[in-house]
Amino acid sequence: MKKAIVLVSLGLSLVVSPLFAAYDEPVDLDKIVVTPYRYEETLENTAASVTVITQQKITDSNAKTMADLLKAVPGVTVKDVYGNGIKASVDIAGFGDQGLLNVLVLVDGRRINNVDLSGVDWSQIPLERVEKIEVIRGGVAAVLYGDNAASGVINIITKKGKGKPELRLKTLVGSYALDGEKLSLAGSIDDKFSYSLYGGHEATNGYRKNSFIKSKDFASKLEYTFNDGLSAHFNSGYYYSTYGMPGSLWQEYIDQHGRRFAKHGEDHANNTDYYFMLGGKTETADWGNFEIDFSYRQNDTDSYFPISKLNTQINKIDTIGITPKYTLKKSMLERDNKLIAGLDYSRVYFRSDKFNRLNDGDPRNFTRTDKTSLGSYLQDEFSLFEKWILIGGYRHEQARYAFNYHDFTGFNPDIDKKLRPEEEIYNGGLVYNYQEDSSAFFNAGKSFRFPEVDEFTYNDSSWQQQLNTSLKPQSSMNYQLGLRHKFSNRLRGDFSFFRMNVKDELYYNSTGGPLAAGQNENYDKTVHQGMEASFEAKLIDWINILGNYAFTDAYFDGGQYDQNEIPLVPRHKASAGLKFLLLKDLAVNLTGNYVGKRYFLNDQANTYSRLNGYMVTDMNILWSHKDLSIAFGVSNLLNKKYSEYAGVVVADSWESSTGITWPAGTRFYYPSPERNFNLRVEYKF
Fold it and tell me: Phi/psi at 514 (nearest 5 deg)?
């Protein structure tokens, strides 16, 4: 692996650098400012592997959802189950099917990961609202962000109003009856009051039958500056969607009915999500800055299964959060020093009610789970020498789960238990700025993940619902070594190695539990290691080029699966992009994403053949003139037939909806969309 990165670095330097030397004009790539430390810092001073997706890159892409956009990020694997973003999983560092639970997602500093296994609904984050996205890879950010930041953090920063009022109207049409209208208004008054308002709706039938989604949402972002040292902000949002759940397809169904068939043609769900965040900030030159946010979120999901014959499920999640933090940027020993300290408090009320679909909706059971967590953190960034920066931090986090379960049928016993897991973690990092806009870095630290509330439950040998109180929090030691190098004013490259030694990794064992019907468990030990390389360049004034490659080696270290690969983790992943500025107002963008072979879901034993790799190419033509812009895009240009997500039956499985028993070795797939088109038109008033 080390030889591979050396060869990549040397080859890129020898082959590409001479091409750009001839065009070494002062057309500098923008200096990037990021917020991995919960305050602003230049990318070169950051002891972490970070990718920034700017607003221009969002505009240039052919992405329709946030999940689409993240597919081109180095080291990030996206598995979009239904192809519409509603059930997409984003994986960093090779955690496979549990990837979405190991990545913390923030919107303007607010956590949007759900407390249960549903993870993140990416369709709730329209690209029209996004200013930029920061993808922080590795567990080094866990000291500042805590639970769920085990393998990385995705920080989404939305647009802030400034200047004269600007009204934007956007319409989107495309394949599978795609139709959407978006409206936004943003601006500021007297440089004191900033406002950004957004509203929109979108609908599509989806690639597969019953993969439809219809949604509407509204969001606001308001900020008022009282004086140079005092400001307040208020963010809010409302989202509603209804969507189909077509289910997986056995190979036999695909052969008989085609890739667009839905085994569960009427299963569907309704989701309502509402939030607000209120906060204030004080700034002083001598005493530092203090900021506090209060947030509330209500997320309700009603799921109906008339075809798959499961119980109707009504879930309600209420979340309260308080996050005070203090930052001090003041010299120490005549050296620059930045200190941050704070608390993260949250209280989550999880309610899940199940009703008998076949018996007039009689209640079956209910689950009530309260999760309270409190994390405290401290981190310091010290300029050790003129070009050296030292970073160190510590976090303590404790959670309290209170479980209450009742079965109305009397078949299962009531459950009333409490658990109190806690973790102490730390990090350390070193940055060397060896030349302007270039740096090398190293970090080491610990990260963790507490189990989600529904990971604890299982059925015992008498089909009695129980709690697996022996389920442990997951923890890991993480190491990262990287280089960010500016070859010239037109070329920049990034290289990094990582290794994570994970203990008690949480996963779903499809043959676990007393009934061998599935249970969430802890692996003994696993290792996640690899390398990432990327570059971004301006070949000549009218051609931009970028590319990246990631190698990921994720395997079991001990236990019954010793040295086997973790399922759904591709060893090789690569992306490339070209932007041609044909005319002043006309651009053509080409992107290609390659994902290599990986073992099917459930195949920890590596018994069966691998799921095929795939290469998907997208293209769009973007024309803009004054206040009007038009983009025509083609996704999956070469009409590749593939599946981002698929699994295998490892023990004979009986399907209740059909009465068929599927033998071990049967594959099931979630087919991804074939070639499709979209047209977006935006006008700015």
Answer: -60, -30
Q: Please, how many CA atoms are within 13 Å of residue 22, restricted to the half-sphere of its CB? A: 7
CB atoms within 10 A of CB 551: 21
657 pLDDT above the threshold of 80: no
C-alpha to C-alpha distance for 43 and 35, rounded to whole angstroms: 9
SS3 state at 127: helix
Radius of gyration of the chain (CA): 25
Phi, psi torsion values for 211, nearest 5 degrees: -110, 25
Q: Which helix (H) or strand (E) segment is 406 a member of? A: strand 388-407
Helix (H, G, I), strand (E, B) or coil at 472: coil
The model's pLDDT over 622-636, given as tens digits with 9 standing for 90+, comes to: 999 999 999 999 999
User: Whole-prediction pTM value?
Assistant: 0.92
Q: Strand pairing partners for 580?
A: 543, 588
CA distances from 372 to 197, 419, 456 (A): 32, 11, 16
Tell me how far apart the alpha carbons of residues 99 and 119 are, in angstroms, rounded to a whole number: 10
- Dihedral over alpha carbons 663, 664, 670, 674 (to 10 degrees): -80
How far out from the chain centre does Cα 55 lie?
Answer: 18
d(CA 17, CA 491): 8
The Cβ of residue 258 has, within 10 Å, a number of other Cβ atoms equal to 12
What is the overall mean pLDDT for the chain? 91
Six token digits for residue 408: 């109305």
The structure tokens listed for 480 are 């990262």
**pLDDT digits over 478-491, tens only?**
999 999 999 998 99
User: In angstroms, rounded to a whole number, what is the distance separating the alpha carbons of residues 136 and 155?
Assistant: 8
CA 227: distance to chain centroid? 36
Other CB atoms closer than 10 Å to residue 40's CB: what's the count?
A: 9
Pair 340, 325: CB distance under 8 Å: yes
Helices (H) and strands (E) in the chain, counts: 5, 41
Alpha carbons 64 and 41: distance in angstroms, whole number = 30
Tell me which residue of 124, 138, 233, 125 sits closest to 188, measured CA to CA.
233
